[in-house]
Specification:
90 residues; mainly alpha; two-stranded antiparallel ribbon; 2 strands; flat
Length: 90
């Protein structure tokens, strides 16, 4: 398959996503939680907040590419700050 460039950064990206899903599954089994209401005024669990974080991070990276163009490691810093905010207040 020549249509997709499977590079090490691409592989690491998918490995991180897979490990996050596995980790959150194990956490949900070992430490069940009750949904909580945050600033969005909707009930969310850890998995919901992970989904919101991943979706928002994708949009942050796309906007970064469109506005700045390069220097994606700085976008990662913005995504980590966003993730901390989501898990704290959402």
């Amino acid at each position: 398959m020549e249509w997709m460039a499977w590079t090490w950064p691409t592989a690491i990206f998918f490995m991180v996503i897979a490990s996050l899903l596995i980790t959150f599954t194990v956490l949900a089994i070992k430490f069940p939680e009750t949904p909580r209401t945050g600033v969005l005024r909707i009930e969310t669990t850890r998995g919901d907040r992970l989904f919101i974080t991943l979706l928002g991070s994708a949009f942050i990276n796309l906007a970064w590419l469109g506005i700045v163009g390069a220097h994606q490691p700085y976008a990662l810093i913005v995504c980590l700050i966003y993730a901390a905010a989501v898990f704290r207040w959402v």
